[in-house]
Amino acid sequence: MTERIVVGAALLDGGRLLAARRSAPPELAGRWELPGGKVEEGEAPEAALVRELREELGVDAEPVERVPGQWPLRPPYALQVWTARLLPGSAGPKPLEDHDELRWLSPGELWDVDWLDPDVPAVREVAARLVTGYASE
Ligand SMILES: Nc1nc2c([nH]c(=O)n2[C@H]2C[C@H](O)[C@@H](COP(=O)(O)OP(=O)(O)OP(=O)(O)O)O2)c(=O)[nH]1
């Protein structure tokens, strides 16, 4: 079975990370994730990330850097994560699709939300980078 990639965005702004609460499907609703979605056939993952952030949150964003690692989801899917930032002039994120609540989490709040299980190691990687400050502008 060919592996299919789901991209998640660790959208960072002012040293905070955006978390999004899923509204569907029922088995995932209420859990928190990095906004994103499935990479389409022939699409680059970075392009999928930009597209999904526009569709789901109404923002103009750009990928910054791949977070090392890949985390298995329900086969054939696997999660890859990029840090991302809002472009100048972008609207602020709104839960337009798939989510019913958004939260900007400071480093001390990263574990206040109930992340989907596969996101936990990804958020841990992002947390290590937030603390060392490389993405905290
Ligand atoms: N977007 C996203 N999905 C995640 C994360 N962690 C995780 O387990 N998932 C799961 C939830 C879903 O089963 C799947 C992604 O599906 P999705 O519904 O977000 O993707 P999509 O927008 O492309 O959906 P669709 O076109 O099939 O409606 O991966 C995450 O951090 N971000």
From TrEMBL:
SUPFAM superfamilies: Nudix. This is 8-oxo-dGTP diphosphatase. Belongs to the Nudix hydrolase family. Keywords: DNA damage, DNA repair, DNA replication, Hydrolase, Magnesium, Metal-binding, Mutator protein. One of its GO terms (molecular function) is 8-oxo-7,8-dihydrodeoxyguanosine triphosphate pyrophosphatase activity. Its cofactor is Mg(2+). PROSITE patterns: NUDIX, NUDIX_BOX. It catalyses: 8-oxo-dGTP + H2O = 8-oxo-dGMP + diphosphate + H(+). PANTHER family: 8-OXO-DGTP DIPHOSPHATASE, NUDIX HYDROLASE FAMILY PROTEIN. It comes from Streptomyces pseudovenezuelae. InterPro entries: MutT-like, Nudix_hydrolase, NUDIX_hydrolase-like_dom_sf, NUDIX_hydrolase_CS, NUDIX_hydrolase_dom. The keyword Hydrolase applies. Residues 2-132 form the Nudix hydrolase domain. It comes from the Bacteria. Its EC number is 3.6.1.55. Pfam families: NUDIX.
